[in-house]
Structure prediction request, 252 residues.
Amino acid sequence: MIIAVTNQKGGVGKTTTCVNLSSALALMGKRVLLVDMDPQAHSTISIVGDPSQCGKSLYDVLMDKTLNIADVILRSTVPGLDVAISRISMAKLEPSLIAEFDGHYRLKDSLSQIKDDYDYIIIDTPPTLGLITLNALVAATHILIPIQSSYLCLEGTDDLLETIDKVKRIANPSLDIIGVIITLHDKRTNLSKDVVERINQVFGAKVFKTYISKSVKLEESPAYKESIFTFAPDSIGAVQYRKIAEELLKRG
Ligand code: ADP
Ligand code: MG
Prediction:
């Protein structure tokens, strides 16, 4: 299963979800690859001890078909979790590939070399609907959408759903939304209740039963290059991301 974690809004918890959901699945014994497609490389930096030990990154692999993605896959600090690393050079991908007729298919082609080595491949994406995100949507079997529990959270959802439909029509007919995760939730506020209701109206059964609360521990753990499961194993964030992983396993 290849899951693109996508929402063109920034700061909604894509990277936090990628890191901690991948870690939860790995700790459950699954073989997991986290593919970092964001030029900001926050997934890479959060969970790989020393990414500079690798001279290349995913950008080089996507640009040069003679390279193998295995050359940019490093072990993370979580047993069983590998990371295809990103670097700021990824920001050059869109201008470099825009004129290539197969520009949307580069990630799919690269993953075909190693996809059977993993039970789950999770792709972190940047906050845009540009060519990088399209590569992720073409390569993926499923999409996971984190939505921040806030007033304007559904702004832009139409654009996202339209993009997903376009990718399905043109390149990836079986692409499916595996779920929507409500993130940065603060259950004390009335606004949050209203927001959750609206998200449920739009996405219905796609919404995961577990919501991810706002929690300082989730914010702190990347600085220590740890997932929430070793940084703060008993924290609410650890409990909730483990439950999300369990829900995901039930969904497929
Ligand atoms: P995105 O990848 O969508 O831009 P991030 O996962 O990087 O979003 O989250 C944006 C910021 O919010 C980061 O500083 C992150 O540490 C913080 N954050 C994410 N999820 C939570 C949470 N549940 N509680 C508290 N802070 C969070
Ligand atoms: Mg991110």
The chain has eleven helices and seven strands. Residues 48 and 76 are 4 Å apart (CA to CA).
